[in-house]
Specification:
eight-stranded mixed beta sheet; Rossmann fold; alpha+beta; BirA Bifunctional Protein, domain 2; 17 helices; 16 strands
Length: about 450
Amino acid sequence: MIKPRTPPGVMELLPRDQIAFQRMLDVIRRNYERFGFLPVETPVFELSEVLLTKTGGETERQVYFVQSTGSLEQGGQPELALRFDLTVPLARYVAEHEHDLAFPFRRYQIQRVYRGERAQRGRFREFYQCDIDVIGKDTLSVRHDAEMPAVIHAVFTELGVGPFTIQLNNRKLLRGFFEGLGIAEGERQALVLREIDKIDKRGAVAVRATLVGGDFGLSDDVADRILAFVQVRSTSHADALAKLVALGQGSGILNEGVAELREVLELLKAHGVPEANYALNFSIARGLDYYTGTVYETTLNDHPQIGSVCSGGRYENLASSYTKSKLPGVGISIGATRLFWQLREAGIISTAESSVEVMVGLMDEARLSDSLDIARRLRAGGINAEVQLEAKKLAKQFQYADRAGIRFVVLYGDDEATRDVVKVKDLKSQEQFEVGREELAAALKVELEQQRAMGAR
């Protein structure tokens, strides 16, 4: 016999953990929709030539190709590949449907993606990404950049994960600063950007050693000035504005970055994002080359070891590989699978109660029709109900409900039928009460609402 086992790099959950994960996705989806984003789904696989528009990157080396058995037998090359993110499929989608979409196009997408990650704890080969993007036609106001932190704030506030900080920067500001040091735009500047993006992980000493040696070869003075710059952090809204003023006038690109960051910061106040939830961080660069302006990373204050829980930024031409149209955009992404796994490991998220709220027991086979009728009335009243379809010992029925995480058990036997009542046992409090059969749904609604209200505190 084959031993049943899951492949490495996937998150497979038991039902009550799956409920908790699904509720996290529901919170993300609900808040995306509240900000006016529209749902999109794309196929799990794309044509290889469409997906792999660039070669040589780390992500492209992790691609899973899709090949039919017939194609394998014929020795054909894989025409399809599993998507490794949701951005490339979005670029293809917008380019293909450009003339049918209203711009700015606001989309959200919550789907699985696939990467051939090296198998290790907390790293996944199959995982959910939850993305939003605003795509413009020819131009897109920086005002949309300020909306992203407002969405992040709404999502993570409702998730209830504790204090968090949305860290902001602008690639133009970084590019302008580097140009002022003689590090011209190009491959060398891109290498420096990628390296300083690692400062919170590797530490200043390690990053400095890399900058003055190897492929970088920067002078000690330049390396020190870079490190001093990228370690700038703001402590309040006023401090953030003051730090931008302190940069003074520089190159045109640096001034653009300062102006854009200032506008984003001012609009955050109008969006109602508390200043405790955002800060400037001049080391945030985002390693991906296509970011051109505002960039974001979100961290949990009490759990820095988790790293960024939501990131993204501004780009100037999303679909240049597929269309001559200029399609600038801004977006963010939440890696939901890794986030859930990390939150559960940190004890921030726990196993959920069952989505089944009531189990209708069966005390006697002759009462099956009554049990089914009670369950039907509960469902009509908006309560999720399951029925025991075989009359077992009550102890076993209670044991089943308890293990399944069902809070209420409803019993209806001969004694209850004589008095036209039902007996309800609350497995959480171990209390028991009776209520008229007709009033059951309304009574349980009250109990469940009280439970939800207490859980929200």
